[in-house]
Amino acid sequence: MNSATEEGLENMSFYTDGKTMVTEFIDRFDPSEEVIDVEQRFRLTTPDGVPIVGAIDKVVKINDDTIAIIDYKTARNAMTTWDLQDDVQLSMYDFAASLMWPEFKNRLLFLDYVRINKRVSTYRTEEDQETFNEFLNSMWLQMQKLEETEIKGRLNSLCGWCDYKLYCPAYTAFLNAKPTEMTALPDMEDGEFLEHWENVATKKSILENRQRELKLIATKKFMEGQDIEANGKELYSTQASRTNYDIVKVVEIIPQEDLFGLLNVNKARLDRYAKDDPDMKSKLQRIAQVNYNAPVYKTRAVKEDIESEFDSKQNESAA
Ligand code: SF4
């Protein structure tokens, strides 16, 4: 709760989700685990002279020869073991761990999806490690050859979380951009419409993130008793109040015949209540009423395009 308040978390579902994840994680925790390190930040130079930087969530000793390197994820969908075979983040962990804990010959790599209680594992062979080392060397070589003028950021929905945004010309230019002339929306061709759609989604995400950062600073200043004021304007805050009633006390004072019209069922709590009771779950499924929210629009590649691209690649390789 303290962290949620400090981070200025406005959406209560993040807080309740987080609380459930942490509680369930603690229930699953095995105290006999031999933890070697947690949140280990590394800043190393590979034997070939490439600087690498990162952080590993947890390292656990399995036996005298083997360690498990665990990365926690909060995603709702897990990657497959197949996806993990070429995952660069895990290859980097494996490489860094081989330098930090050379006494362990074997390293198992895990992604632990705490939201869905699923672990997916993989490992890297010596040959994989050698290939990754070559990849690092070639990346480092290319980075060293880069001229500053060649470095162009490509704005995307993750810019708000990017560690380099303060040094990124594309990000700075976007925040300081002035509105330009645009085609009227109803007159846009589909191509322009789709491009504009994706552009707006990206910029919305960047701006929302920026606003969150601004709010954090403002909250901190207000808590320290400072004003934010300039040119005859000031920032001020209002806070809406929310009133709740204790259900037990409400039930005591409202006549029985009126109660059903006044009370709501908390779906999340009811689902948790029935979580380990299949009989109750199927009874609830039979009486559930499903309503649909307003549609959410997203863009994706058209299926025929993917198939025709695949076909043409097949044809090319056959030729
Ligand atoms: S802020 Fe710049 S460097 Fe970071 S992801 Fe966005 S475009 Fe790329």
Folded structure, characterized:
The chain has 319 residues and is α+β, with helices and mostly antiparallel strands. It folds into 3 domains: 33-145, Lambda Exonuclease, Chain A (Alpha-Beta Complex); 152-242, no CATH class; 247-287, no CATH class. The protein has 12 helices and 7 strands. It has helices at residues 2-6, 12-28, 81-84, 88-100, 126-145, 169-175, 190-223, 247-253, 256-259, 267-274, 278-287, 303-318; strands at 34-45, 51-63, 66-73, 106-113, 118-123, 229-230, 233-234. It has a 5-stranded mixed sheet with strand order 1-2-3-4-5, covered by helices on one side. The radius of gyration is 26 Å and the shape is globular. The site of iron/sulfur cluster has 12 residues, from helix 6.
Describe the protein's topology.
Elements: H1 2-6, H2 12-28, E1 34-45, E2 51-63, E3 66-73, H3 81-84, H4 88-100, E4 106-113, E5 118-123, H5 126-145, H6 169-175, H7 190-223, E6 229-230, E7 233-234, H8 247-253, H9 256-259, H10 267-274, H11 278-287, H12 303-318
Parallel strand pairs: 3-4
Antiparallel strand pairs: 1-2, 2-3, 4-5, 6-7
Helix pairs in contact: 4-5
This protein binds iron/sulfur cluster.
